[in-house]
Amino acid sequence: MGCISNKRRPSSAVLLITSPHVIIYVNKHSSCSANGIRLLVEMFFSLNELLSWLGLSLFELWLNLVSLCVFSILLALPSSSPSSWWITFSPLFVADALNAYFSTIVLIRMYLEALYKVAFFRALWSFCFLAALFSFEFLLCRKLSGETSLEYSEVISPIFILLQLMAVRACQLH
């Protein structure tokens, strides 16, 4: 038996990951189980790769994840008021404001340490990232509350621009 199988679970196998499309079993008695686990771990990005590709610090990533969790909880709560979309999106807006404040502090500290070029490019990337993200959130909130007649392709266009910028940044890193 090999390391990865899509058949029924054998009695000597350990279930690693299940998803709607893939079930992976690693045989306990096989010599390739360590290779199978190593293959599985190498499929995901490391934290350092994720931070360098996104151009965020660990604090900014943590802040975005916490705000996304609070947003998800508020999204699940029932509400019938049209202004409720602004309340639902408020954790994302607060996170954007805190990220902009943090980026400004980092810019000032890097400037005081005479890292002018690095400070400029980090600030430029951070503020482009935040501007695209904020404009998407703002346009989506307006669209969902019925305040504008924009199409969804127009609302999502800042995300498309952000993805293109991230692709250019990923190519520059390697």
Automatic annotation (TrEMBL):
Q: Which InterPro entries match?
A: TM_Fragile-X-F-assoc
Q: Which UniProt keywords apply?
A: Membrane, Transmembrane, Transmembrane helix
Q: Does the keyword Nuclease apply?
A: no
Coiled-coil residue spans: none
The record's section on CDD domains has: TMEM203
Q: What's the superkingdom here?
A: Eukaryota
Transmembrane stretches in the record are 53-77, 83-108, 120-140
Listed name of the protein: Transmembrane Fragile-X-F protein
Record the organism: Nesidiocoris tenuis
